[in-house]
Design goal:
Elements: H1 2-34, E1 39-42, E2 45-51, E3 55-73, E4 76-95, E5 101-115, E6 119-120, E7 125-131, E8 134-138, E9 149-151, E10 156-159, E11 165-168, E12 175-183, E13 194-195
Antiparallel strand pairs: 1-5, 2-5, 3-4, 5-12, 6-13, 7-10, 7-12, 8-9, 8-11
Length: 206
């Protein structure tokens, strides 16, 4: 009986191990299948650099803060706490001598009918259109629609790191854009772009 139990335990371990391998492989396949790589896109990284100046890139916001104010009432000073709205910045990335930012320049060419696929970048990105016309789509909530924004030569746009987007060339000539990336320190070229799943608000835009 002890020998039978040992064989049973071994068989059970083998079955559970095989199941774990299958689940792991299935998870990897699922991740790969959900990504949306580009089509008809080519673009070398032209140069890299480092920014050590004290710079903060962000979005302007208004926030509520509490301030102490002193007022005189009938000859005596009274301190009150009041809430006021002030201009502020929601930081996207901060650079300094202690924590420098990496920078990268890239020239991207998208053939007619091509697209970048849905993706994000690890830091803020500035894009300028050099030739052709690009159509930019953004991810959103289901049911919000998927409007495209067209950009002609000489125009450009800014993208925060949280922006899931894809750029299409829906014209008849090659689309050429120049991208300037501000990146966390140590970001390799292979990590400047991260593929993302196709968003639910754009079911017809791969």
């Amino acid at each position: 009986m002890p020998r039978f139990r040992r064989h049973l335990s071994l068989r059970r371990a083998l079955v559970l191990g095989g199941l774990a391998v299958c689940l792991t492989v299935g998870a990897v396949v699922a991740v790969v299948a959900s990504a949306t790589p580009g089509s008809g896109v080519a673009g070398p990284i032209l140069s890299r650099g480092t920014a050590t100046e004290d710079v903060v890139l962000g979005n302007p916001v208004r926030k509520t803060v509490t301030r102490k104010v002193r007022i005189r009432v009938r000859g005596r000073t009274v301190t009150k706490r009041v809430k006021v709205k002030v201009k502020s910045v929601r930081t996207l990335i901060a650079c300094s001598a202690a924590k420098p930012c990496d920078t990268a320049f890239q020239e991207v060419t998208i053939n007619p009918g091509g697209h970048t696929g849905w993706h994000t970048h690890p830091g803020p990105t500035f894009v300028a259109v050099a030739a052709g016309e690009g159509t930019l789509y953004h991810a959103g909530l289901p049911g919000t629609g998927c409007p495209g924004h067209k950009y002609a030569p000489g125009s450009g746009f800014f993208q925060p790191s949280s922006d899931v987007h894809t750029l299409w060339n829906e014209g008849s000539v090659p689309l050429v854009v120049h991208a300037f990336y501000v990146l966390p320190p140590g970001t390799p070229n292979t990590s400047i772009r991260t593929d993302q799943p196709q968003p639910p608000n754009c079911p017809t835009i791969p």
